[in-house]
Amino acid sequence: MKIYEIPKDADQQTREKVADLLMGQMESIGKDNAYELLMEAINLTLTENSCAHIFVAEYENTILGAAFLNLGISLDKGGYYIWLNDLYVHKEYRNQGIAKKLLLKIIYWAENHGIKGIELETGISNAATKALYNSLGFYDVVSKRYGFRF
After folding, report:
1. Does the residue 24 lie in any domain?
2. Are 69 and 53 in contact (CB under 8 A)?
3. Looking at the domain assignment, is residue 141 inside a domain?
4. N-acetyltransferase domain location, by residue (predicted)?
5. Which of 36, 45, 52, 133 could lock onto 138 through a cystine, CB 3.0 to 4.6 A?
6. Which residues contact 114 (CB under 8 A, 6 or more apart)?
7. Which of 58, 32, 55 has the alpha carbon at shortest distance from 42?
8. Strand 79-89's sheet: what is its strand order?
9. Domain assignment present for 150
């Protein structure tokens, strides 16, 4: 298995393979135009000046899992941090350590790029995901997240 960052100059086929995988996650939100939204986000991510990154786990030309993240600047950390928007593994390949390998790759990448921390959000009742994050040294932060959509 190969874990790597999708390059900014990725071809259309690679972009579509990432979108196809992430449709599994998007289906849960029930949007009719989810594929178009995914492709738009992936294309924006892969523009030259984007602060977003996509890492994938691939085996025999099949993308099994993906992580989508953004870099931000944190006042309390005094530098860049990662906001891990999404971490998704295809349901047929779960419980094989793929998510952990993706996270370890991101942690290694972050350490080598001077990133000060990683933040993310997961469901309160998602015990398996919480156990994964805790096993890698992530800790609970009590907060209430708000959103606004245009």
Report:
1. yes
2. yes
3. no
4. 1-150
5. 133
6. 79, 80
7. 55
8. 2-5, 52-59, 62-74, 79-89, 118-120
9. no
3-state helix, strand, coil in the chain (%, to 5): 40, 25, 35
Domain boundaries, position 86: 2-135
Place of tokens 């449709």: 23
Q: What is the pTM of this model?
A: 0.92
Q: Is residue 106 part of a domain?
A: yes
Closest by CA to 67, choosing from 33, 39, 98, is: 98
Joined tokens for residue 73: 């600047």
Q: What is the CATH number of the domain that holds 59?
A: 3.40.630.30
Indicate if the alpha-carbon torsion angle 68, 70, 71, 74 is positive or negative.
negative
Tell me if 62 sits within 8 A of 13, measured CB to CB. no
Q: How many domains does the chain have?
A: 1
Token code pair at residue 99: 């998510």
